[in-house]
């Protein structure tokens, strides 16, 4: 069974379509800037997207028309070449590219029915599991399943890092059956949370034996897992009764500074009508990325809000799953404790306070027991996936 799309010609057509849309979008931005400069329409205030007129307007119209015409030509050529292109299995490099593309533009891909959009699915050994394959895996297990949820712009294959895979190691050392989630990280976290909850319910429905679930979630995967629990309660799903523990690895429970910085850049660019057209480039980034600004996990965190607006944290309170033992590992690249290293840099993407659930607003503070928190130093965000002490800590917590 193939993952997502494994036809090279389909990949090329999809990327070609995305490129055409991007060229047209950039043309709109340049024309808007051109209009602003030539009309001298003031230095402050947002710039509306305007079309230029006369000869200049004709040039921009022709650029769009030619781009669309070339797009048709690309599709025709690819259709002619499709018989010459071989089907190929998923490769780590190809999957990494698709994962990044989905992370940055995943919501756009879905909205435009682009086949490069990754559907959420369970996988094992890099292969998607349909209901029959999933059922067979469950029957072969002892009912103890480790659900592995990857982070933003990543995929299930990337749990294997520098020869180590937490899921494989847990299978060998503890007899846990690892099942990996593969999903489009560009969608809203709450959208992925709902789908994830439905998938977990499928496991319970397919099993004839007692199931015990453990979730190991890296980065955004932790937010998706918390969201899944929230929507699982609303849907009265039974998998919640089988969930024993969640281990969060570098999860930005209260957001990532990188996206907060991106939001500040949006605001600065919008101040001037000359720079405002360029702000639309930054606003290409996906819903999944902007959800990482504060750690949105439910629809109410983003509905009725302009996700690019420069505003404060407006999230509603979503506590840790009740009745579930939750653990958090936070990393910092600093070898010694310092305010700059811990509170600003963290693991390079997530600060210690965000990963540990600490928040100045007591209502948003996540109450991990002190014995369920651990800080690892001289480790970056990705090395949480292969660091030996991190794995030993996960194993110790799951064994307790």
Question: What's the gist of this structure?
Answer:
The protein has 400 residues and is of the alpha/beta class. The protein has helices at 8-39, 54-81, 92-111, 131-140, 166-174, 189-206, 220-234, 257-271, 276-282, 287-291, 339-345, 352-355, 388-399, and strands at 121-124, 127-128, 144-149, 160-161, 164-165, 177-182, 212-218, 243-249, 325-332, 373-377. The relative contact order is 0.11.
What does this protein structure show overall?
By secondary structure, the protein is an alpha/beta fold. The protein folds into 2 domains: 8-89; 121-255 and 315-399, Rossmann fold, CATH 3.40.50. 46% of the residues lie in helices and 12% in strands. It contains 13 helices and 10 strands. The strands form 2 sheets. Strands 2-1-6-3-7-8-9-10 form an 8-stranded mixed beta sheet, with helices on both faces. Strand 7 (212-218), helix 7 and strand 8 (243-249) form a beta-alpha-beta unit. Helix 1 packs antiparallel against helix 2, helix 1 (8-39) runs antiparallel to helix 9 (276-282) and helix 6 packs across helix 7. The longest helix has 32 residues, at 8-39. Residues 40-48, 74-89 and 259-282 have low confidence and may be disordered.
């Amino acid at each position: 069974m193939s993952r997502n799309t494994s036809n090279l010609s389909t990949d090329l057509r999809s990327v070609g379509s995305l490129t055409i849309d991007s060229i047209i979008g950039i043309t709109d931005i340049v024309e808007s800037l051109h209009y602003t400069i030539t009309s001298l329409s003031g230095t402050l205030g947002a710039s509306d997207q305007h079309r230029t007129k006369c000869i200049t307007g004709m040039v921009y119209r022709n650029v769009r028309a030619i781009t669309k015409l070339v797009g048709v030509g690309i599709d025709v050529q690819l259709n002619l070449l499709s018989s010459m292109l071989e089907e190929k299995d998923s490769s780590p490099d190809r999957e990494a590219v698709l994962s990044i593309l989905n992370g940055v533009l995943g919501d756009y891909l879905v909205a435009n029915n682009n086949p490069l959009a990754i559907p959420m699915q369970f996988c094992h050994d890099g292969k998607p599991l349909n209901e029959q394959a999933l059922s067979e895996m469950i029957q072969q297990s002892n009912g103890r399943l480790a659900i592995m949820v990857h982070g933003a712009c990543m995929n299930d294959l990337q749990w294997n890092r520098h020869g180590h895979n937490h899921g494989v190691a847990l299978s060998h050392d503890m007899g846990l059956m690892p099942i990996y989630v593969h999903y489009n990280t560009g969608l809203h976290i709450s959208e992925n949370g709902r789908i994830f909850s439905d998938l977990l319910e499928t496991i319970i429905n397919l099993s004839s034996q007692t199931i015990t679930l453990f979730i190991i979630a890296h980065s955004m995967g932790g937010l998706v897992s918390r969201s899944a629990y929230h929507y699982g309660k609303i849907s009265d799903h039974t998998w919640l009764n089988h969930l024993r523990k969640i281990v969060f690895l570098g999860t930005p429970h209260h957001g990532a500074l990188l996206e907060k910085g991106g939001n500040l850049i949006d605001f600065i660019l919008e101040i001037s009508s000359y720079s405002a057209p360029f702000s639309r480039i930054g606003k290409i980034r996906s819903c999944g990325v902007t959800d990482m600004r504060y750690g949105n996990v439910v629809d109410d965190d983003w509905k009725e809000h302009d996700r690019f607006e420069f505003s404060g944290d407006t999230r509603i309170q979503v506590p840790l799953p009740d009745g579930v033992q939750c653990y958090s590992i936070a990393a910092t690249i600093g070898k010694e404790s310092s305010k700059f290293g811990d509170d600003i840099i963290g693991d390079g993407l997530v600060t210690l306070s965000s990963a540990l659930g600490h928040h100045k607003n007591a209502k948003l503070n996540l109450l991990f027991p002190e014995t369920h928190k651990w800080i690892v130093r001289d480790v970056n965000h990705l090395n949480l996936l292969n660091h030996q002490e991190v794995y030993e800590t996960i194993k110790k917590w799951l064994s307790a």
